[in-house]
Specification:
This protein has three helices and eleven strands, in the order H-E-H-E-E-H-E-E-E-E-E-E-E-E. It has 197 residues and is α+β, with helices and mostly antiparallel strands. Strand 7 and strand 8 form a beta hairpin. The strands form two sheets. Strands 1-9-6-11-4-3-2 form a seven-stranded antiparallel sheet. Keywords: Dioxygenase, Oxidoreductase, Vitamin C. Pfam families: 2OG-FeII_Oxy_3.
Length: 197
Amino acid sequence: MEDCFETLISSYLDSKVGIVEHFVSEELAQHLLKRLFELKEQNLLKAAGIGNAAKLTQNSAIRSDAIYWLDRANNNEHENAFLDQVDDFVSYLNRSCYTGITGYEFHFALFDKGSFYRKHLDQFQDNSSRQFSMITYLNENWQPEDGGELCIYDGDETQKIAPTNRKTVFFKSNELVHEVLESHKPRLSVTGWLRRD
């Protein structure tokens, strides 16, 4: 896995946006996808909010995805397998780049057909603990006409990233404004932030 981790870090250092095509195994991606669909069937996905703590609000004109937080207390072996891999990546990142990451938070995200997330930064104005944003996609056979690209803005530069299966994207939470363009079919991911509390 260290080759995978190194690709993610080196591509981030080269262009402010780290990308690796296969952060999770095919088997784990399938299990996570199945888990996400089970959560949807059980009505456990909740409309995502904007802001944090007491400032948390819902505004479907800005953000229209549904989420479910990963937690080891859920006792789901596939969630835990993903979090184990995040633990390994954080250890490697701290060891190789001295980032001082002390924790993380991840959720499943489902963008149903017609859903989007308008331009935003991932770090809260009143809380700088989120250091890096990290998204792993779970979309099999994604095609260009399916939309749902992650669009990242850096000055005059715009980068569009297709949410193809098993791809992971990694960038600084306070640096790059980004958005999720409208998805034309259900778009699935595990999305989260590496924190320094």
